UniProtKB/TrEMBL annotation:
This is Aldehyde dehydrogenase. It comes from the Bacteria. One of its GO terms (molecular function) is oxidoreductase activity, acting on the aldehyde or oxo group of donors, NAD or NADP as acceptor. Gene3D superfamilies: Aldehyde Dehydrogenase, Chain A, domain 1, Aldehyde Dehydrogenase, Chain A, domain 2. It comes from Streptomyces capitiformicae. Residues 16-482 form the Aldehyde dehydrogenase domain. The keyword Oxidoreductase applies. Belongs to the aldehyde dehydrogenase family. The keyword Oxidoreductase applies. Keywords: Oxidoreductase.
Length: 486
């Protein structure tokens, strides 16, 4: 354990509280050493956090939007001031490379607080309606106003692949709309979320508006979902867990925002820029070591370029340096845990047994410690293979060929998931035509880049609802109608 490591306390009702369940170790996936001790919240403590959020909701929801925005802006500034130590902690918890930890984790976390530190309209006038005389009264011109109101207490359950951007993307818009939150971070990397809570506390968030509770098992998360004080659950994680959360939310009629699994298709037509396609698809190997739901993990390539694309993608994967994420030249760091490494490796072996051709990877890197997986490419796959249908969540890409546009769309849509797909083609008209036929929440045309004001969310088993940009403000609000005679 490093000298900076410490036993972390829970954050409940504005106080730092000793956990009822003691502590558990947070492990650095690159070094297998202990980063720090995270608190085990009891069910009663999680419910106490929700009760604190309920008590704080009334005053916070009545706070002027400008005041809430000022708190978020100050939090963003404080996070930026501590970017380096925050990024070092995030790197230790997740195994992210230095550039990813600073830019994509802490940097985007700060940017999301800054994004919601501006006041947007919450009232929308509705066109007047002329009502004739009838059972409900005399003839009248009826005015109407649609007003966005906060939902109430929101439980935010976050993913392990980004302990800054993902929680910030939930907490910031929820607070901006006047909600209060109970944050349940992923068990693998909760310490970064407690640093975020410290920044919010220093920025002036009133007691009870933000609460953070953690645990290594399912108890804390279940309590954060089933508490009677919770009005909404915002969850990022697996579809299997999302389904269980949805069942509880359904019984309590709680609002849901769910960003779940993905199995992104990268359709590459024979007129595509292969260099661009290879570099983009290659982000599956490098970005979070493939632990990202938006990754283009299924390559569906037209036969005219299929062999060349597979060759170039394999060469690209072999050139990527795998190792210590703290080293300047490292591109591919570890996956989050030993158990997850075993899971990813089992999928690679399953693919071989199913008949896929192992083009590159498949072996464990010769490193003394750390949970590393070599970037792996499985080619000549068929749609029925589990490695094609199921989310692997690691640096593994599968490839299969297609002949014409209709077949490409059929193959891309042949999955339970529908988060983000991608299309590469020199014919922009065709690319957009194909994009509209894909059953997925987003489509990248000749890019894996994101527009951070565009709605984000999935079709099918990839989720419920949309967030990012102004869509997140909609997600964390209810619409109230006020009607009056003109």
């Amino acid at each position: 354990m490093s000298g900076a490591a410490r036993a972390q306390r829970l954050f409940i009702g504005g106080s730092w509280v000793e956990p009822d369940g003691g502590y558990y170790e947070v492990t650095d996936p690159a070094t297998e050493t202990v980063v720090g001790l995270a608190p085990e919240a009891s069910r009663e403590q999680v419910h106490a956090a929700a009760a604190a959020a309920r008590e704080a909701f009334g005053p916070w929801s009545r706070t002027r939007p400008e005041e809430r925005a000022a708190v978020l802006a100050k939090a963003a500034d404080l996070i930026r001031r501590h970017l380096v130590p925050y990024a070092e902690l995030a790197q230790a918890e997740t195994g992210a490379t230095t550039g990813t930890a600073r830019g994509m984790q802490v940097g985007i976390g700060a940017a999301r607080f800054q994004r919601y530190a501006r006041v947007e309209p919450t009232e929308e006038p509705i066109a007047p309606q002329i009502n004739e005389a009838g059972p409900f009264g005399r003839a009248a011109v009826m005015g109407a106003l649609a007003i966005r109101q906060p939902v109430g207490v929101v439980t935010c359950i976050t993913s392990y692949n980004n302990p800054w951007a993902n929680p910030a993307g939930k907490i910031a818009p929820a607070l901006a709309m006047g909600n209060t939150v109970v944050v349940k971070p992923a068990p693998q990397d909760p310490l970064s979320v407690y640093r975020m809570a410290e920044a919010l506390e220093a920025a002036g968030v009133p007691p009870g508006v933000v609460n953070v509770v953690s645990g290594s098992g399912v108890e804390a998360g279940e309590a954060a979902v089933d508490s009677a004080d919770v009005d909404m659950v915002s969850f990022t994680g697996s579809t299997a867990v999302g389904r269980r959360i949805a069942e509880v939310c359904g019984r309590g009629m709680k609002r849901q925002l769910m960003e779940l699994g993905g199995k992104g298709a990268a359709i590459v037509f024979d007129d595509a820029d292969l260099t661009s396609a290879v570099a983009a698809i290659g982000t599956t190997f490098s970005f979070y070591s493939g632990q990202i739901c938006t990754a283009p993990t299924r390559v569906i390539a037209q036969r005219g370029v299929y062999d060349e694309l597979v060759t170039q993608l394999a060469e690209y994967a072999r050139r990527l340096p795998v190792g210590d994420p703290r080293e300047r030249g490292t591109v591919v760091g570890p996956v989050i845990s030993s158990a997850h490494r075993d899971r990813v490796e089992s999928y690679v072996e399953l693919g071989r047994k199913e008949g896929a051709r192992l083009v590159t990877g498949g072996e464990r890197p010769p490193l003394d410690h750390g949970f590393y997986v070599t970037p792996t490419l499985l080619a000549d796959c068929t749609p029925d293979m589990r490695v094609v249908r199921e989310e692997i969540f690691g640096p593994v890409v599968v490839a299969l060929p297609f002949d014409d546009e209709d077949e490409a769309v059929t193959l891309a849509n042949a999955t339970d998931y529908g988060l983000i797909d991608y299309v590469w083609s020199g014919d922009v008209s065709r690319a957009f035509r194909v994009a509209r036929r894909l059953r997925t929440g987003g489509v990248g045309v000749n890019t894996v880049g994101r527009n951070m004001e565009a709605p984000f969310g999935g079709f099918k088993k990839s989720g419920v609802g949309r967030d990012v940009g102004s869509y997140a403000l909609h997600a964390y609000s209810e619409v109230q109608a006020i009607v009056w005679p003109g």
